[in-house]
């Protein structure tokens, strides 16, 4: 390298170090302000993880100021949020007002949030491990789009995760790693802040080498950034090999303790342990205490030269990279290395010492470049402006609206066996609609992508996959087809496929749906993801489902079969609480249709909701139970299906009872209602397709009356107003009875709620419905109890 180039590089590194110090300062001050200066009205600790920020600052400075390109996407380590917000402020994408309100209402969020923060957040993080996994599936989504020409080769971005080493304990990371390996993913960087400390203590020594071995076995390139340039130079001197060996073999807790105690403690321990090595002692003697402390703690993850060289090597190809960056938790802060520093906060004296050490002028703490000369300020501003990432404008794209099929179009798909008079299950209806979509030639059909955790066939997606194929970066031959072995599943596999087959890990399903459901803002291309799983196992991935909804990812989730109606499968496969899960999950409309035509209408509605400005995702709880379909006199029922309920049999003005049902138990409700009419000819029969939508609409209507005086009548208030106030309600659902028991509160109707509150067992439907009081007889008994 020419002397001029070498000098320029050294000058740039010096500027980056100066900038890194100011990023550390602004992050630390943001946390300090929130905890010590801003008014506290509730007495609660605000928090902010200054130590975790300090261990990530060098890595994030190198990434954002040199390596990151506009098309790259980053999931930031949750506890490094203040560092992220500080960097975004330097780029002009985060205001001082938001920093001053960190962790307060309307301010910068505690953990980066796509929906709550105003700066450039690619992926929400917070629930540990999920921000790591989502980058693998975002890479898969990018590959999917690239195979269709929607992302050009020159626009392919790296999906990057910054994570703490304690996150590597999370099992969902390894579930995602396995899936990444199966799908041959590239363009993925996982950068570990390997400070060897978790929330409670230091991590175990024996994991030093295991992580790299795991990722290498999965086909990733592992980059271990253990030593800084300063340390490597010291190791080349006489006695350096012994010093290196001492660090290599030192237990994590000892290393952390000495880091906290400082240079004098380092000297005392090293002098004792290396007493027989004259060269090593001589080497140690050349350093002052402060310099010796810096030498021993400036590991590879705190060395800009080391990090930038590693990033440059990784940029030469698209192989997945796993960076193990050795760091010190809390480096340069008064509690560096202390095992209790995770939630530690600098007190006013300590923050003042840091301010003085960094040259920040008192009273100018919010000016990241305070105290610098005019030339330094100009140089640092130029460095930020030249960052490749700085040229990006709005990286949050808006995708064009796609025409989706109407409800009437999808109803044609299930009409072959009769909308009225025939027998179908809601799961079969779903399969018919998806099979029909697969035959379409329009843009919408080309943007539908399905995925399932190894239950594609048993959730009735097989027909769609037969027509549209399985996605994979490399084509695979169907050996059964070539050898002329008959099979109902004719699955071609290659880049044109529209189904992503996953292993048996529901957590991966929801993370995949999160990534596929974010392609519009991330890549400017709208997809319509449809994911299927068994309803009983939705609970396995609840954290990931919540994570997907929190980011406003858009998808259709189909969970089937459900409830006690699984029958022979027994209690281990029965879902009891899933209707309540659907009701309680923000960003997700939950429906449980009973009939095939309701299913088709709701699928059309769900596809509309995916791209609506005020839309969300949809969860359909379906069943394999085949039931008789109703005759429809007109189309009025369609609006009620979407709104959450409609009168299948309207009550008379003087009705004393109404039966309310949801989902697969419609036949029992119909049978009971028919018998009830003999004594109560005015009784009504209410079909509830969504307790979730009904309840949310009801509470919103009530809130509007309290907050802005608006007089709005909710759907359920309007429907139940058809009943006299002294009438009774009997509710029936194949799930927790609390799903519908709240209906009595709408107008004060007396109510008996039937549902499941205990685990079921294997059996046929007549026996199980009778034993668990879900049959027509149970409904009539409840009606009699109300009348009594």
TrEMBL record:
UniProt-listed Enzyme Commission number(s): 1.2.4.1
Residues the record lists as binding Mg(2+): 165, 195, 197
Catalytic activity entry: N(6)-[(R)-lipoyl]-L-lysyl-[protein] + pyruvate + H(+) = N(6)-[(R)-S(8)-acetyldihydrolipoyl]-L-lysyl-[protein] + CO2
A GO molecular-function descriptor: metal ion binding
Superkingdom assignment: Bacteria
Pfam families (alphabetical): PDH_E1_M, Transketolase_N
InterPro entries reported for this sequence: PDH/Transketolase, PDH_E1, PDH_E1_M, THDP-binding, Transketo_C/PFOR_II, Transketolase-like_Pyr-bd, Transketolase_N
Domain spans labelled Transketolase-like pyrimidine-binding: 424-629
Keywords on record: Magnesium, Metal-binding, Oxidoreductase, Pyruvate, Thiamine pyrophosphate
Listed cofactors: Mg(2+); thiamine diphosphate
Family, per entry: Belongs to the transketolase family.
Function, in words: Component of the pyruvate dehydrogenase (PDH) complex, that catalyzes the overall conversion of pyruvate to acetyl-CoA and CO(2).
Name of the featured protein: Pyruvate dehydrogenase E1 component
Organism: Caulobacter zeae
């Amino acid at each position: 390298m020419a002397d001029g180039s070498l000098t320029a590089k050294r000058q740039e590194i010096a500027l980056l170090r100066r900038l890194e110090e100011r990023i550390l300062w602004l992050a630390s001050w943001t946390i300090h302000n929130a905890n010590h200066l801003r008014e506290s009205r509730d007495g609660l600790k605000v928090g902010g993880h200054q130590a975790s920020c300090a261990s990530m600052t060098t890595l994030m400075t190198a990434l954002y100021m040199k390596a990151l390109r506009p098309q790259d996407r980053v999931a930031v380590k949750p506890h490094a949020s203040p560092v992220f917000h500080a960097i975004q402020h330097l780029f002009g994408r985060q205001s001082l007002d938001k920093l001053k309100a960190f962790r307060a209402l309307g301010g910068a969020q505690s953990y980066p949030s796509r929906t709550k923060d105003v700066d450039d957040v690619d992926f929400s993080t917070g629930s540990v491990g999920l921000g790591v996994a989502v980058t693998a599936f975002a890479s898969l989504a990018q590959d999917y789009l690239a195979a269709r020409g929607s992302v050009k080769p020159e626009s392919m971005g790296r999906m990057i995760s910054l994570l703490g080493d304690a996150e590597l304990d999370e099992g969902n990371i390894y579930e995602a790693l396995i899936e990444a390996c199966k799908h041959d993913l590239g363009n993925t960087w996982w950068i570990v802040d390997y400070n060897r400390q978790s929330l409670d203590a230091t991590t175990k020594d024996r994991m030093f080498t295991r992580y790299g071995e795991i990722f290498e076995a999965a086909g990733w390139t592992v980059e271990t950034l253990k030593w800084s340039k300063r340390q490597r130079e010291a190791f080349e001197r006489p006695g350096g090999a012994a010093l290196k060996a001492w660090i290599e073999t030192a237990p994590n807790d000892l290393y952390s303790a000495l880091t906290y105690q400082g240079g004098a403690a380092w000297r005392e321990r090293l002098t004792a342990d290396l007493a027989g090595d004259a060269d090593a002692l001589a080497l140690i003697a050349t350093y002052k205490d402060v310099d010796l402390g810096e030498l021993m703690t400036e590991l590879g993850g705190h060395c800009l030269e080391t990090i930038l060289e590693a990033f440059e090597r990784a940029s030469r190809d698209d192989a997945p990279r796993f960076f193990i960056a050795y760091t010190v938790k809390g480096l340069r802060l008064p509690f560096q290395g202390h095992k209790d520093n995770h939630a530690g906060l600098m007190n006013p004296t300590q923050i003042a010492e840091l301010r003085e050490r960094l040259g920040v002028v008192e009273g100018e703490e919010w000016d990241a470049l305070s105290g610098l000369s005019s030339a330094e300020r100009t140089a640092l501003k130029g460095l930020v402006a030249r960052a490749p990432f700085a040229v990006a404008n709005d990286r949050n794209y808006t995708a064009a609206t796609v025409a989706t099929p109407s409800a009437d179009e999808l109803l044609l798909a299930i009409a072959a066996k009769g909308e009225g008079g025939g027998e179908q299950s809601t799961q079969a209806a779903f399969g018919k609609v998806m099979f029909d979509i697969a035959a379409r030639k329009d843009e919408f059909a080309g943007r539908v992508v399905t995925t399932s955790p190894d239950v594609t066939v048993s959730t009735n997606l097989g027909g769609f996959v037969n027509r549209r194929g399985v996605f994979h970066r490399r084509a695979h031959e169907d050996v059964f087809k070539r050898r002329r072995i008959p099979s109902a599943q004719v699955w071609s596999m290659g880049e044109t496929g529209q189904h992503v087959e996953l292993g048996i890990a529901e957590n991966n399903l929801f993370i995949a749906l999160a990534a596929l459901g974010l392609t519009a803002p991330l890549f400017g291309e709208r997809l319509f993801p449809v994911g299927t799983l068994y309803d009983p196992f939705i609970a396995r991935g609840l954290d990931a489902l919540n994570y997907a909804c929190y980011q406003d990812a858009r998808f259709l989730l189909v969970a089937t079969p459900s409830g006690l109606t699984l029958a022979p499968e027994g209690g281990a496969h029965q879902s009891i609480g899933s209707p309540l899960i659907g009701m309680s999950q923000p960003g997700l409309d939950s429906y449980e249709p009973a009939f095939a035509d309701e299913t088709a209408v709701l699928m059309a509605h769900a596809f509309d909701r995916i791209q609506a400005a005020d839309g969300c995702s949809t969860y359909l709880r379906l069943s394999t139970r085949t039931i008789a379909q109703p005759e429809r006199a007109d189309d009025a029922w369609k609006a009620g299906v979407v709104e959450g309920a409609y009168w299948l049999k309207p009550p008379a003005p003087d009705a004393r009872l109404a039966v309310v049902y949801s989902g697969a138990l419609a036949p029992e409700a119909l049978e009971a209602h028919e018998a009830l009419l003999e004594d109560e000819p005015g009784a009504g029969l209410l079909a509830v397709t969504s307790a979730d939508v009904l309840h949310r609409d009801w509470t919103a209507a009530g809130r509007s009356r309290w907050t802005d005086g608006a007089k709005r009548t909710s759907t359920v208030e309007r429907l139940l107003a058809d009943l006299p106030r002294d009438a009774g309600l009997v509710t029936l659902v194949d799930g927790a009875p609390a799903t519908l028991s709240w209906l009595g509160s709408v107008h004060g109707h007396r109510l008996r709620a039937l549902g499941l509150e205990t685990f079921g067992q294997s059996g046929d439907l007549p026996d199980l419905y009778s034993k668990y009081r879900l049959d027509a007889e149970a409904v009539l008994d409840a009606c009699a109890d109300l009348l009594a």
